[in-house]
Amino acid sequence: MKQILLITDGCSNVGISPVVAAAHARSEGITVNVVGVLDGGDVGELGAAEIEEIARAGGGLSRMVHTRQLSQTVQMMTRKTVVQTIQLAVQKELKQVLGDGSIDSLPPEKRGEVVRVIDELGETTGLQVALLIDASASMKPKMAAVEEAIHDLMLSLQARQGSSQISVFHFPGSRHGDECLMDLGWSSHLKGIQSIFPKLQMGGTTPTGPAIMQVIDYYRSGDLGRKERYESDGMMGDYVV
């Protein structure tokens, strides 16, 4: 299961629309979640609207949070999106089997079984999260909160039963470039996280759309391992509803 988690505080201003890029990610099977980070003021109506539109186009969730809420929000959104994706897949299979995609239409005992399966899959399904960090100048005071959030997310992912991997990117790649740079390749360990942030050069433009597109390219070319069983054999697998 593939996700992009974008952490930003403002409006994109370079290259392809991030809304278009997020829609492209969704077509590739990658969910895009967006956290808008506040610092006592707000990112403005335009920024907030863009954040919501990016997430909507990417089939994900959006939240506007203060820095003190960032860590718990990042963990919540990651897990909630996993469960949401599994629920949609289960609903689709139920519709094919029963002619009705609603879990609520099942008898109570069967409904309980489906909910149990969803919870179990949420813990055991393989998960990859590509963190995409806005490193424009206005984000500099918020980087400590972002670092803490990533550390806590790694701990949360390591506590799951299923395999979990994280990669970290930031944009812009340079003060004048419109690209993003990879700071950490796919990893399931905390090692390397601490070395990311001292190296970040804050400032420059906000090429959110091009950055999303580069992360999509990384998903395409990276070694993403085997597909999980539910992708090839059906979400419910050996479970009988």
Ranges where pLDDT stays below 50 over 5 or more residues in a row are 223-241
Kindly give the count of domains.
1
Euclidean distance between termini CA atoms: 23 Å
Remind me, CATH topology? Answer: Rossmann fold
Shape-level CATH architecture: 3-Layer(aba) Sandwich
Structural class: alpha/beta
Domain VWFA: 1-86
Protein name: VWFA domain-containing protein
Task: Lay out the secondary structure.
Elements: E1 2-8, H1 18-27, E2 30-38, H2 44-57, E3 59-66, H3 70-98, H4 108-124, E4 127-134, H5 143-158, E5 164-171, E6 181-187, H6 208-221, H7 229-233
Parallel strand pairs: 1-2, 1-4, 2-3, 4-5
Antiparallel strand pairs: 5-6
Helix pairs in contact: 1-2, 1-6, 3-4, 3-5
Explain the overall architecture:
There is one protein chain. The chain is of the alpha/beta class and 241 residues long. It has one domain (2-71, 128-226): von Willebrand factor, type A domain (Rossmann fold, 3-Layer(aba) Sandwich). The chain is 44% helix and 20% strand. The protein has 7 helices and 6 strands; from the N terminus they run βαβαβααβαββαα. The chain has helices spanning 18-27, 44-57, 70-98, 108-124, 143-158, 208-221, 229-233, and strands spanning 2-8, 30-38, 59-66, 127-134, 164-171, 181-187. The protein has a 6-stranded mixed sheet with strand order 3-2-1-4-5-6, with helices on both faces. Helix 1 links the parallel strand 1 and strand 2. Helix 1 packs parallel to helix 2 (44-57), helix 1 (18-27) runs parallel beside helix 6 (208-221) and helix 3 (70-98) crosses helix 5 (143-158). The longest helix is centred in the middle third of the chain and has 29 residues, at 70-98. The chain starts with a strand and ends in an 8-residue tail after the last helix.
